[in-house]
Amino acid sequence: MLTRAKNWLDAQKRLAERKHVIRLDSCAVEPLGEKRGYNAVIEGFNLHPAISPPRVTVGGVLLEEMQFQADGRRIRGVLRQKPRSGRVMVDYGFARATLKGEIRWIEP
Question: Would you say the pTM of this structure is higher than 0.85?
Answer without folding.
Answer: no
